[in-house]
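Give me the fold.
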Amino acid sequence: MPDFTLTLPATPNPFFFPFSILLSSVPLLGVSALLALALFKNLRNKTNHMSILIKGATLPEGKQSDILLEGNKISKIAPSLAEPADEKIDAKGKLLLPGFINTHAHSAMSLLRGFADDMSLKRWLETKIWPAEKKMSETDVYWGTMLAAAEMIRSGTTCFSDMYFHPDSVHKAATDSGMRAMVGYSVLDLGDSAKRKSELALSESFLKKHSKAKQGRVFVSVQPHAPNTCSKELLIASLEQAKNYNAKLHIHLSETRREVFELLQKTKMRPVDYLASLGFLSPNVILAHCVWLTKQEIKVLAHHGASVSHNPVSNMKLASGGVAPIPEMLESGVNVALGTDGAASNNSLSMFEVMKTASLLQKNMRWDEQSINAQQSFDFATRNGAKALGIDAGEIKEGKLADLILLDLNAPNMLPAHSLISNIVYSAHAGNVTDSIIDGKIVMRNRKVLAFDEEKVLEEAKKAAQRIAYS
């Protein structure tokens, strides 16, 4: 077999190094050359986005289209496309949707799924959850987040906003999983000045380390826990951090009546009014829960442009008692998105369940079958979530981020298709998701997760959960 040498481009290209030295100075046998080229191609694919042509997909409005993805964006949408692409997906008989956006999660709590159920919130936290969390190492948080990522990918979520501790581990897991994510460190001081200083230092360290990736797939946020667990000084300092790093603010608000009453006693103001008095509210803020709001508070939120992450499944399971006034929020112009909360209080991370519950809960509570229709609930999980997190996704439009999922239209629970939107919200489930594309890359194909070794994740998560629960 003859020897040969590859010719390299005259213009210096850092991508070709160190292959340029290797290939220009060492004659390679044909077999060796093929191996080198395979390695080169593999590295290129990991570094650069590929083009993907999705053929014959059914869109939510019912029409069939071809969709070309180039880089990490949706490039073209047309009834028929013949453009060349690195990868083709035959989507006949499949429904193409924007990926779901989970705007409030504690992903590593997947390790505590089923660990403590059917208990009062106070007892649940003090006797079960907090003691278990004290045992969780950085490695545990990594595997817990990877377990959550596997579940989210399989159930159609392409982006999540995470609030937890050991944020470096969450950030690494989000990066390794192929998911889009907003990650931060949840700070609280309970009025302790020493703790405030250390919490802010931890948050600052995380932001410095990862803030350069703001425009990337995994980006940072600032996360004061809640108005009743954070001092005024901590809230103001968090606001300044967010401004300094051009990051979103993510905070719990009015999840329980007790939280509202505590703040009323302390400040003589309701939670929304209190945050507004600190200059905290803006379109840069995501407020999780917002169950116990007055009409006046809703008007304040709308005035400042803050987004709400509605978590109906978790709220019901933890018996928050009230029902978030979502129709009033929409009437006032508040951007409403959806979240699962943690797997310890849901216990699923399926946005299908959250969409359905968000609609049914309002209908039942208000005796109004038209309250929160299927389209509204779907929008909460997609484009409204994208708006809340500040990402250009959540819709199937040219120029949008290529965060997309495919569902099997021939599954029994998806037939007949009188209304695709109704089927998505009221009858679809995680098992219907066949494929997932995030940031222009295929992370799941025909129900097989490609982005990471799922079997290893499951094994490591089982070991971590066992040790935390029973050691």
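Confidence is low (pLDDT under 50) at residues 1-34, 36-47.
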